[in-house]
Specification:
The protein is of the alpha/beta class and 201 residues long. It has a single domain, classed as Vaccinia Virus protein VP39 (Rossmann fold), CATH 3.40.50. Helices cover 32% and strands 24% of the residues. The protein contains 7 helices and 8 strands. It has helices at 12-20, 36-45, 56-64, 101-111, 125-134, 158-168, 188-191; strands at residues 26-30, 48-53, 68-71, 86-92, 112-120, 171-179, 182-183, 194-200. The protein has an 8-stranded mixed β-sheet with strand order 3-2-1-4-5-8-6-7, sandwiched between helices. Strand 1 (26-30), helix 2 (36-45) and strand 2 (48-53) form a beta-alpha-beta unit. The chain starts with 11 loop residues before the first helix and ends with a strand.
């Protein structure tokens, strides 16, 4: 793989996604925020980019970056998109905020050839230690919110997602595990803060 794109270094999963997306492809980013990733992909990978974001303020910021984005709620599904219209559909650190994540991944693989999913790993040792010794909801780099303000409604680990992929017959073409900017090879369910999966049918 190529080196980490410097412009995406603040988000380790963005850096991985930036390497995974092929030049000239058609990309849909679900929960695109202010469009940082899509803008980078347009400039450096010459992709045809579209984004969906629930926040109207962030949609306006994405459009100001030159990204084609519109307001939409992922909980309502992707029925507006026809089958196979994208090469990659991206869901970066949003899976844990969606009411029905399994349906959304199936929808991603219906409208796109590949799905790229990243999420914070609730199985990380720091999370386990905080729960065990403090008996409190953890606050880490991956989980920076207090329990009463977090957008997360599902707390999954690397092992949970691997089990789901096998159960739903998603083909894992690539997986990458990260703590900060460092790749994790050994014991990712324990040692990785963030996981990135490239899926297909």
């Amino acid at each position: 793989m190529t080196t980490t794109p410097a412009a995406l270094a603040d988000r380790s999963d963005f850096a991985v996604i930036g390497r995974l997306v092929a030049p000239g492809s058609r990309v849909l980013d679900l929960g695109c925020g202010e469009g940082e990733l899509l803008a980078w992909l347009k400039q450096h990978k010459n992709v045809t980019a579209r984004g969906v974001e629930i926040s109207p303020t962030q949609v306006r910021h994405a459009i100001a970056r030159g990204v084609s984005a519109f307001q939409g709620d992922l909980n309502e599904g992707l029925a507006d998109f026809p089958d196979g219209v994208f090469d990659y559909v991206i869901l970066s650190q949003t899976l844990q905020e969606i009411r029905d994540p399994v349906r959304v991944i199936h929808d991603m693989l219906r409208v796109g050839k590949h799905a790229i999913v990243s999420f914070p790993n609730f199985g990380h040792w720091h999370v386990r230690r905080t729960m065990l010794f403090r008996g409190r909801s953890p606050r880490t780099r991956a989980f920076p919110y207090e329990w009463y303000e977090t957008p997360n409604i599902h707390f999954l680990s690397v092992s949970d997602f691997e089990t789901l992929a096998a159960q739903e017959k998603f083909v894992v073409e690539h997986r990458e595990f990260l703590t900060g900017q460092r790749r994790i090879g050994l014991l990712p369910n324990l040692r990785a803060e963030v996981a990135v999966f490239l899926l297909t049918r």
